[in-house]
Structure formats: structure tokens, C-alpha cells
Write a structure and sequence with these properties.
By secondary structure, the protein is of the alpha+beta class. It contains 15 helices and nine strands. The strands form three sheets. Strands 1, 5, 6, 7 and 8 form a five-stranded mixed β-sheet that branches. A two-stranded antiparallel sheet has the order 2-9. Strand 7 and strand 8 form a beta hairpin. The longest helix has 16 residues. It is an enzyme of class 3 (hydrolase).
């Protein structure tokens, strides 16, 4: 039985019941694909329903404020995805009259849409015979065909893309693409794949050569950077605090946070008040300051680990315009700040 036939037969018996598989609406399929980038299905599912509920059409998403979109995205991380999502929605709504491009090449022109997403939408919604290649596909192809070219290199991406395209069922690309992704997600998993009952075991190079744990090959990532954040959580007698919007090109652009003092290493209070970033807040030298967490909270991102302390600054009046405690939860914040807010209980 051909490779494609084996995969689709497995898929029809084992596929998950996922909402975006019940539609060919490009808005909903595109939305699900963007949400599921760098995100597990179980985590992404509530966000998918949330976005469909709050922004039922591409026009609703396009017309929303960035702050509202970021608030709905809060907790998913990689916030540039949310900003790109809305930019693409605005383009579709304003330039294309709400109609999504119906082919791979034009889909690639949308902000935040790369090869994988364009292939997925084009094949699932418009039956265009273009193969998808995501982490699951890399894993399945590398193991079955014994491909040891690193998957995170230009050469690797090209090689796996060409291989996937040759295997694609041209008559039903949507089903094949979903089948190979689902097979990697549920059966040919990173750890403890179900090799003994695998329909591809007879032809799988990795299984027959005992190389399962060695494939796929991925070059080591860049060194993780360690950063030390100190948040000044102002608490006034008027029951107000200070939240500031992050600017620039760094992490969490557009999200809100408490006044931040970043230090080269873990800081004590005496070290903290010497930092230039503290000079605008003379009140912390005069009023009572409590350290909320003695042990820094470590927030891990893909390329950096952030060690965080929250300093509660009790004061009569705020040094700048503040926000009422009851409005704190209305603003989009990073997951790190969200967890603190929930724990502290504004």
C-alpha cells in the first residue's frame, strides 16, 4: 500500500474531533493555524473559541483595537503573532473585501503567513496540491526515510519540503496534509512513539536501524540569555497602581507591565534604589517597600530566562498617573504579570 494511502487510512480511524476540521472557511482555518503555531492543541483550543466568539468574522478582527486583540491573546506568548494576525485581517478586510486569497502564493503575502500556514490554508480550503511541513511532518519524514539533514537549516527545510511534495496525494491534499500532521502529533511522537503497532514500521528506516531517538536532527539553539527584572508595584491609599505599556522591538511589545527596573544580577533593595531607572521614583526611598517574593520567579522564554522580583511600594500618592485596582485586569499583560496579579489579588 502506498505511503499516502497508509497515512490517510490511519487518519480516518484515529483523527481527533477538532472544530477547525469541520469547516473550509479560510478565516477559521487561518485563525487556527496562527494560534497553533508554537502552541499545543489543548492550550490553543480555548483561544480559538475565544477569538471566534469575540471576532466572528475577519471584519470584526480587523476593526478591533490592538489592545483588545492582545487581551484576547494574553497567555499564548509570541505576541508578534497577534499583531501580525490583525495586520493580515486588516489587509483582507480593507484591500480584498473580506475575501481571503485562494492560492498558496497570494496567501504568503499576508502578514505573519509563512510557507506552512499558506500551504495548510491553500490545501484545506482550496484543495491546492501543496504539502505542509511542520514539526510533526519533519519528524515523520526524517524517521521513515532516514533523513538526517538538520531540520532547522535552509538545506533541511528545502529537502523536507521537496520530499513532502513528492509524497502528497494530489487528488486530496487536504486529507493527506492533515493526516501526516496528525500522525506525527499522536503516533510518531517525539518520545515513546508507537512503533510496534505502526502501519509504516516495515519501511521505517529509523525503526529498522534503531535510530528513533536520533531523528530528526536539529542543530543546537543559541545560548539562553539570563535577565533580572524588578517590578515596582505601586499601591496607593486611593487604591491605584501604575501600569506602563512596553514599547520598542523587544519582548511583549504593546503589553502592559508595572514600572520595570532591570539589573545585571539579582538585586537587593539597597542595590535597586541605586539604579538609574529608580531615580524617577523617589517615593520608594521614603515609603515602606515590601518584597513580594524572596526567591525570584523564573519565567522561561525560548531565548531567555527572566528572573523576576516584585517589590510592593506602599505610598500616599502615586508619582505619576495611575489606574484603579478594578481596571488592572482589563489591560493586556504578559503571562508573568498576569500570574502575579491573580496571586496578589488587586
Amino acid at each position: 500500500m502506498p505511503f499516502a494511502k497508509k497515512l490517510t487510512s490511519w487518519y480516518l480511524e484515529n483523527k481527533r474531533d477538532l472544530p477547525w476540521r469541520k469547516t473550509s472557511d479560510p478565516y477559521r482555518v487561518w485563525l487556527s493555524e496562527i494560534i497553533l503555531q508554537q502552541t499545543r492543541v489543548a492550550q490553543g483550543m480555548p483561544y480559538y473559541f475565544r477569538f471566534i466568539n469575540v471576532f466572528p468574522t475577519v471584519f470584526d478582527l480587523a476593526n478591533a483595537s490592538e489592545e483588545e486583540v492582545l487581551k484576547q491573546w494574553q497567555g499564548l506568548g509570541y505576541y508578534s503573532r497577534a499583531r501580525n494576525l490583525q495586520a493580515a485581517a486588516k489587509f483582507v478586510a480593507e484591500e480584498l473585501g473580506g475575501k481571503f486569497p485562494d492560492n498558496y502564493r497570494d496567501l504568503l503575502k499576508l502578514k505573519g503567513v509563512g510557507d506552512y500556514t499558506a500551504s495548510a490554508v491553500a490545501s484545506i480550503c482550496f484543495n491546492e496540491p501543496v504539502a505542509v511541513v511542520d514539526g510533526n511532518v519533519f519528524r515523520v519524514l526524517s524517521r521513515v526515510f532516514g533523513i538526517d539533514t538538520p531540520i532547522n537549516t535552509t538545506q533541511g527545510k528545502k529537502k523536507f519540503g521537496e520530499k513532502a511534495q513528492t509524497l502528497l496525494d494530489k487528488k486530496d491534499p487536504a486529507e493527506f496534509n492533515q493526516a501526516i500532521m496528525e500522525f506525527g502529533a499522536l503516533h510518531c511522537t517525539p518520545r515513546k512513539p508507537q512503533c510496534e503497532i505502526c502501519p509504516l514500521a516495515a519501511e521505517c528506516v529509523a525503526f529498522n536501524q534503531n535510530r528513533i531517538s536520533q531523528l530528526p536532527v536539529k542543530l543546537k539553539k543559541q545560548k539562553i540569555k539570563t535577565r533580572h527584572f524588578n517590578y515596582l508595584v505601586f499601591v496607593s491609599k486611593e487604591e491605584k497602581t501604575i501600569l506602563q505599556q512596553r514599547k520598542g522591538k523587544g519582548i511583549w511589545k504593546g503589553l502592559y507591565e508595572f514600572p520595570l527596573v532591570e539589573t545585571a544580577s539579582e538585586a537587593s533593595f539597597s542595590n535597586l534604589v541605586q539604579e538609574d531607572a529608580c531615580q524617577d521614583y523617589n517615593v520608594i526611598k521614603e515609603e515602606r517597600v515590601d518584597l513580594f517574593n524572596e526567591t525570584p520567579i523564573v519565567h522561561k522564554l525560548s531565548h531567555q530566562h527572566i528572573h523576576t522580583k516584585f517589590w510592593i511600594v506602599n505610598c500616599e500618592e502615586l508619582p505619576e498617573e495611575g489606574i484603579a485596582f478594578g481596571d488592572v485586569e482589563k489591560l493586556p499583560v504578559p503571562a508573568l504579570i498576569e500570574k502575579f496579579i491573580d496571586t496578589y489579588g488587586f
